[in-house]
Amino acid sequence: MRRYKSLNNLVGWLVFAVATLTYLLTLEPTASYWDCGEFIACSYKLLVPHPPGAPTFLLLGRLLSLLSFGDATKVPILINALSALSSSFTVLFLFWIITMLAKKIVVGQARLADGRAVEPTSGQTIQILGSGVVGALAFAFSDSFWFNAVEAEVYAMSAVCTAVVVWLMLKWENRADEPDSDKWLILIAYAIGLSIGVHLLNLLAIPALGFIYYFRKNATPTLLGSFLTLVISSVIVGVILVGIIPGLPSLAGGFEVFFVNSVGLPFNWGIIIFLLLFLTLIWLGFRYAARTGNRLLNTALLSFVFILIGYSSYLIVPIRSSYHPTINENNPEDVLSFVSYLKREQYGDRPLLYGPQFNARPIASKEGAKRYVRKGDQYAEAAPRTEYEYAPEDKMLLPRLYSASPEHLYQYKKWVDIREDVKPTMGQNLSFMVRYQFGHMFWRYFLWNFVGREGDMQQAGVVTPFSSKNGLPERVAESNAYNNFLALPLILGLVGLFFHTRRDGKNAFIVGLLFVFTGLAIVFYLNQPPIEPRERDYTFTGAFFAFSIWIGLGVMALAEGLRTILKADGLRAGVATLVGLLIPGIMVAQGWDDHNRSNRYISVDSAKNMLDSCAPNAILFTNGDNDTFPLWYAQEVEGYRTDVRVAVLSYMNTDWYIDQMKRQSYKSAPLPISLEHSQYVEGTNDYLPYVENPAVKEVNLREFISLVKQNSPLLQVSYGEGGPMLLSFPTSKFFLPIDTAAVQKMGIIAPERRSQLVDRMEWNMGKGAIEKKNLAILDILASNNWQRPVYFGTTVNSQDYMGLEPYFQLEGMAYRILPARDPNYNPRSGDDGYIVKEQMENILLKKFAYRNLDNPAVYYDENSQRFPANYHDKFARLANSYLAAGNVAKAKEVAVQCLTRIPDAAIPYDFYTPQLVPALVKGGETVRANQIMDLLTNRAQLALAYYTAHNPALHDQDIQQNLITLQSVARAADGVGDQTRAAKAFGLMQQYMPAQQ
Fold first, then answer.
1. Which residues belong to the signal peptide in this entry (predicted)?
2. Cα separations (Å) of 61 from 20, 77, 79, 153?
């Protein structure tokens, strides 16, 4: 037995080493897109990220970041490595899980209580370990898991939590008859508690654990017993998910409000009383269990306590929030705001089992649960959230077609034949669930990992053994992410599933339950809308983990199949293992190039470039996620340009964020917002509707802000019959008087623009509502007096510009608002912002960094390829500005610099690139210009032919992009007098336009 145990440990650690080396070699060296920049920044300084937070991840990330020894550039590598190590340990525990299950089968102990009793023979040992190696490495090199392993996200650590609890439960199963076996259950409870501070996905393993317990305690399980096990384990999940995580803090919050408001105690005394009472009840429970000798109750109470100990990592959230750190999302500094944070209330909810369908209209509204905020020495009731009621006939079971968003309605029609004015049938509802939610958003991902993936484009399909690259768009056919596994992992996994079911039905059922709950059950619970901002395959790695167990056990099935050919156990096991190893070999060979993120710096460079677009002490308004999180990383971790205040527009609609913007942050002074907290608290001035007053032709911005601050009756309107009074705006025409003498003294207007300086800025706000974020921006414009530069990021949605575009000056990747009107502004051109050429050239060519954007060996996925399009646009704008000024040499130089720093071989040309053609042709680079136009025309032609023939509705965005590219080529060609190329591009547009109508 010692020999097998030693080999099992040794081979497991070798598999761990292979996985670790793979992940470290392909690790992203800095903060990648999406949440990674936020998690790295929040780990480094223990800040408060978006709800519901991940305190366990942050604490471990903080510990690893200490190994940087003050070198901030090493921090992202170390925190990314936390995911790599988490993934490696997941692979290690998966190996041991497979070998435990395999050993039960190989040595005929599937029906024995203790799987440790028999020493396998040499041949059996090879078979067991070979199964573990193949299954573990297949999972290690699977697409979704590998993606999570090389960036600072929570899903890798969530996976290791799942792997640990399953492994611990199998360890308990082998030791359940020992007197101290309950210690394993308590350790599992602690691991589950810790996992709550990472991600809640781990809780979905509990039903599988419940069946391991039931089958171990009952030699002859019954259908009723199995049903009760499923019910009890599901209740345990519910108790943790609802009763413990938000439930206990909610109860503590109720005590707090009562004892502060009703009894008159100081703040936090209600929480203290709750804790004392809660601890007393736990102590009484233990005392009762000891007196009665109730081992089950004692173990249950211990498990409960250890879940709470693990869950206590969440205390870091209100503790750190109370210190008002620079990133403090939702400001959960007291128990009441902490509960809202845990419940993710800012994201709203989706109907799950019963609710309204998409064309339901509210018939009534009511106030939601009471909300409290601190005011003076008590808790005051805050404006409650509104809850809408719907007619019973507008509700349905399992509402999957529920969103009334115009974008979602458009997307629904791609999957089911619906009409917006007709209630969907249950058949249509279930069809969407099966086709989109289960099919497109789960089984497609499943097949990506075990059959093949078409590419990194969103909505990418599955590559099968019979797929051909003939006719595929170049972006797909030549993508590193085009991976074909020949369906071998799927086949071996299905063979393993069949074999496992035949040889050890109970454990096969448990693995199947793990697959269902960490895969299909998540799909059902999420009730995903018909479009997502990015692919969500990382959510389902738990299901892929379970299937990889069957891939490993498939090696045993191969060995059994070779029994009639090869009689020697060792030889048969060795051949089966070698054949099985071909599968992870194919997976790593296919997946290495598109999972290798080494030498990729685009996200952080883009953030630093945006910061360097701004003048000192600037205010920069940005979008969320990919715009903001890299900026947070650059400022919080590397301390880069902390004089610039980054203001996230989506957060500016909340009171807690505006409060934070009114505080000092590093070198950035508070924002000049004159509104008081009471004037933007939640429920107050959330939006100001347009209500025309013919007597008011235009409004002075400063006077308007003053009226808002006074809650003036002049702006008040009634919302509905008997409804609340809201502030409004009476005209869409706003103006702001300018002290031109003071502005000239500041020197913020370039000499060439002095004639454009206006004594009064005038703009049209439009007739939509003024949201809270717009009100805050208007307040800044009214109060700032041009003391601080104010910018919008060029990637911000144009609807947030509020009609101020004529006063934009383009500086790098940001629009600066200046009291100088661009005389050539044309709203139809799409070219916002006046360009001061020398300033823009200095920013683009001297300040900006483009690390490795000229290196074809570095892999850039779809998200990474989107941002460089902004560089192409800005280079083209500058080149054409020089061209318009008659400086052909400079125009050519700028265009050539763009193509040199960001060549097509590294970052493919996009629809902005043809805008460089006029500068190239005028500068004598006609051959190069023609190559650009021909290349883009041919690519668009091939892509349009493919997408219009293969599910055009699903690829409408790709079709639209290629049509825009052709339009850009046609304009460029026409602008340089190349009618042949213009006609070809225009003709292709005409040919494929009907497919869009």
1. none
2. 17, 11, 5, 11
Take residue 586 and report the two structure tokens written for it.
């194919």
**How far apart (Å, rounded) are the C-alpha atoms in residues 871 and 873?**
5
What are the φ/ψ torsions at residue 668 (nearest 5 degrees)?
-95, 125
Q: Residue type at 944?
A: L
Q: What DSSP string describes 917-985?
A: HHHHHHTT-HHHHHHHHHHHHHHHHHHHHHHHHS-TTTTHHHHHHHHHHHHHHHHHHHHTT-HHHHHHH
Rg over CA atoms, the chain: 31
CB atoms inside a 10 Å sphere around CB 521: 18
Confidence (pLDDT) at 1: 53
- From 906, 908, 907, select the one nearest 856 (Cα to Cα): 906
Q: DSSP code of 243?
A: I
- Two tokens at 204? 């979905």
pLDDT at 111: 47
Closest alpha carbon to 418 in 693, 410, 276: 410
d(CA 861, CA 876): 23
- Compute how many other C-beta atoms are within 10 angstroms of the C-beta atom of residue 881: 22
Global confidence as pTM: 0.92
Q: List the beta strands (DSSP E) in 471-541.
A: 483-484
Beta-bridge mates of residue 375: 378
pLDDT at 171: 93
Question: What residue segments make up the domains of the chain, in order of their start?
Answer: 4-340+483-591, 354-397+401-436, 601-828, 845-992
β-pair partners for 700: 735
Q: What's the order of all strands across the beta sheet hosting 814-817?
A: 645-648, 619-622, 790-793, 814-817, 808-811, 834-835
d(C-alpha 463, C-alpha 466), whole Å: 8
Six-digit token string for 754: 């002095």
Phi–psi pair at 683, nearest 5 degrees: 95, -10
* Predicted pLDDT at 475: 86
Helix and strand totals (H; E) in the chain: 38, 21
Ramachandran angles phi, psi of 364, nearest 5°? -165, 165
Give me the residues paired with residue 874 across strands. Answer: none
Give the helix/strand (H/E) hosting 388.
strand 386-390
Measure CA 940 to chain center: 30
Spell out, as residue ranges, where the chain has pLDDT lower than 50: 110-111, 995-997
